[in-house]
């Protein structure tokens, strides 16, 4: 039987929400083993003088815990 764990990651990108998600997953894969999925909990934007400066995502990443 496998045991999973969930960690919360906040990632940002000046391009798009999709790019922020991909950057967060890429970074999670560098640190965590056996990443199985992610749930995008929240999306937000950072503004600078009324223009979008950064797209941010708050995600829960699920990974399998090794024995």
From TrEMBL:
Pfam families, alphabetized: Dodecin
Gene3D superfamilies (alphabetical): Flavin-binding protein dodecin
InterPro entries cross-referenced by the UniProt entry: Dodecin, Dodecin-like, Dodecin-like_sf
Protein name per the record: Dodecin domain-containing protein
